[in-house]
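Before going further, learn to read the protein records used in this course. Taken together, the C-alpha cells spell out the fold as the letters spell out the chain. A record is reproduced here so that you can trace the correspondence yourselves:

***
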Amino acid sequence: MSVMDQYPFIFSRERKWRLRRHLTFWAVWWLSLSFLYSFIAARTAGDYLSHLPVSMMESLVYLIVHIMLSYLLIYFVVPRFIMRQKYGQAAIMVVCCFLLAAGTSALVKFTVINNISDFYMMEPRKFFWPSWASFHMAMMAGLRGGITVAGFAVAIKLMKTLYEKQERNLQLQKENTESQLQLLKAQVHPHFLFNTLNNIFSLTQDKSPAAAKMVTSLSDMLRFMLYESNKPVVPLSREFHLIREYIALEKVRYGNRLDLHVELPDQDNELYIAPLLLLPLIENSFKHGTSDIIDQPWITLSARIEDNMLFLKLLNGKSAGSIIPGENGGIGLQNVRKRLQLLYPGRHELQMQQEEEVFIINMKVELVRIKQIQPGSIAAENQPHV
C-alpha cells in the first residue's frame, strides 16, 4: 500500500474526503482568526472573552472573502497559469485577485462588520461612506488576512500536487520496468523477426500481392511496438496510422461480412499522445465484439479534434446477452484506464456502456500541441512519461 493510500484524508480524491479536508482547513482558520481578533480587541479595551463572540461573527463574515480568494487561486490561477509555466500572466492574475479580495474586505467591513459591532455594543448608527484613507486602511487589513490564508492554501495545494506527481512517476517507472521484464521473457530477437518477415514478403510479392501487403502492415505494426512504444509520446497521426494498419489486417479476416465505418482525421504531427493508448480499444472491439457475431459483425469508429482535445467514440455490435469485459474485467481496457489516470490526471474522460447488442466507448483526452520536441527541453519534460 502506497503512502497516498495510507492517508486518504490528505490524498484521496473521493468526495467525502475532499469535503472533510476543506471543512477542517476552514474551521481551523476561522477559529484562529476569531481568537486573534478577540486578542487584538482586548488589548485596547475590555475583557478577552467578552470580545470573543463578536470576533467569531466578524471572522465568519471575512471567511467568505478568504474562501473566494483561495479558491480563485487554487482552481483557476494555479492550474491555468502556474502549472502551465505562464508566470507573467500568473503574476498579473494574482495581483488582480488580491486587489479584488482587499476591496471586497473593505466593503464588507463598512457594510457588515461595523453593523455587527454596533449591534453587539447596542450602539446603532447610520451608514456613512468612509473616507479614502479609511477605505485604504481597511483594504490593507483585508489584504493582510487574505494573503496569509491564500498563501497557506496555495502552498498546501502545490506541495500536494508535486508529491502526487512524484508518486505517479515512481509508479510509472515501476510498471515500465515490470512490462519490459515481461517483454524480454517472451521476446523474439527483432532482427530475426524482421528478416523472416522480409523473406516472406519476397516470396509472396509476386504470387500473392495481398499477402505481401499484409506482411508489410504486420511489419510496420511490430516495428512500432518494438521501437516506438517505449517513447514518452508519439505523433497522434502515427497512432492513427497504426490503427488503420490493424483494421486493414482484421478486414482481411472478416472479408465482406464486416460492416466497418472509420473516420479518423488527418493530422499535422503537432499533436502528441502516449503510444499504444488507443489501439487496445480497437482490439477489444474485434476480440470481444465482432468475433462473437456470426451474421453481420459491425464496428463504428469516429474521432475528432477540437483545439487540443481528442474526442473518440467507438461502437461495436455484440451477441445479445453477452458481456464484454469493461471496467471490472479485460486486461486491455484496464490497462488503458490505468494509463489514462497516470498519464493524463484530470485531463481525460473514459466512459464504457453495455447495451443489449452494442458496446459503446466514449473517450476524451486533452493532448499537447508541440511543433518540435527537443530532448531535454521544457516541452519534452512536460509530456507524459510512459
In short: The longest strand covers residues 298-306. The CA atoms of residues 204 and 210 lie 8 Å apart. The beta strands are 234-235, 259-263, 271-273, 298-306, 309-317, 348-354, 358-366, 368-369.
